[in-house]
Structures are given as structure tokens and as C-alpha cells.
Please model this.
Amino acid sequence: MRKVLLLSLLLIMVITSGCNKKTELDRLWENATELTRPKRNIFVPQYGARPSADRLHQALAEYDKIIEYKIQAGEKKADIYRRLALYGIEEGQWYYAITNYKRALAIEPSKADDYYNIGFCYGRLSVVAVDSAHEEELLDAAEHYYLTAIKLNKKFIRAWYDLGIIARKREEWDKGIQYFAKVVNTETANIKALFGLAACYYGRADRAQGDLAKSYELYNTIVALTEKAYRNSKWQKMFAIAGYTSDQMERWHEQAMENKEKVEQRMYAE
Model:
């Protein structure tokens, strides 16, 4: 019985000590509150002198510290949501990733990367859409988030490129040319964007004079770039840094040669 009583007392002491333990935020809040209270008048208790300007400034400083704690906590939460979203991307759980990126944006609404990543997830979902209407809905969502990312960062190359992919898929050649050109104007050796731009010029050739010639020249550029990858060690290193393998460069070289021939045949046919 005595052991039970002792254990009960110890448990009460632990709980009480935990309840009475003040955090740094509690201390700051109490300090700030106290600094804003009027000083008690011992002669007339219902009245008190206003807190001095110095005390009010001190209170503001304490509240600023509280706000800073909350901002830091918010930033940490946003970072955790982004980490959870990455798990979703790695596992192909696209809606889970979207949900967590949106939670991060609710805390930090000006992060272009988060908008881009949501667009990327919708783009991936469009690949496995149940029908064409659903696919268009998902592509609309992806386009919206890519454009939002670009509003925050005009030089967001990945967003411009992925907008070009959507435009090409929809055969919106004018848009595709605009988007891929944004990439190529910044990254002149971006082979994927050069392919995209060449394809859009080829697609628009029926209604735009000179587009076949532009498409032909772009494929020529790709051929020249891929040949440099064979002959020049400096270019080999550059393409390796960009993540292009020698096998990939070889396939692109062959594809550019085939496409170039196809464009040439059409030019002579016209």
C-alpha cells in the first residue's frame, strides 16, 4: 500500500512539474504582457499609471521575438511538407505529393519551385488519365501551375520547357515555339528543347512560310552538337554535367539525321 502511495505521489509530482515547466514562448509572452500593463497605484488600486514608452518598446521587442519563433516554425513545417512531397514523387503517389506541396505553399506562398513541382505531378498524372477529357483537365492544371511558377521566376527554364511539351502534345504550335524558344535563347545547347522547337516549326509549316527551313536548320544544329560530343572532350564533359550519356547523344544524332531528311523531302516536294 505504501509503495502504491509513493508511486502515486511521484506520478503527481512528474505531471505537476511538466505542467509548470514554461517554454521560451511562454516566458516571452508573459514578459510582453507584463510590460504593457499599467503600474499599480497602491493608494488608488482601481487606477494605474500608463506604462512608459520604453516599456511599450520593450514589449514590442518581445512580441517580435514571438513572431520570429512562429515564422521559423512555419518555415520548418513547410520544409517538412516538401520532404513528404518528395517521398510521394519517388513512390509515384502524385496526389499525395500535390497535397503536401500545397500545404507548403499555404505557409510560404511565393516559392516558384513548389508551383512547378505541382505542375510536374499533374503532368505525370495526365499520362495515366482514364480518358481524353480527364487528360485535358490534368494538363490544364499542369499548365496553370507552370505559368504561376514563371510569374514568380521569369527564368524558370524547366517550367518553360514543360509548357512547350504540353503545347506540342496539343499541337498548339505557336505556343510551343514561344515556350521552347525561351529555353533555347537561354540554353543554346539544350538538345531536348531544340528537338521540341524543330518539331513545332515542322508542325506549323502548313500555314507559316519558312517554318520548314527553320525546322531543318534546328535539326542541323542538333547534328552539329551531337557530333561535337564525339570529337571534343570539353563538349563531352559539358553534356555529361547536363546528364546526357554518350548512348543518348548517339540516339539523338541518329534521330536528328532522320528528322532532317524527312524535312528535306517535304521541302523538295513543295
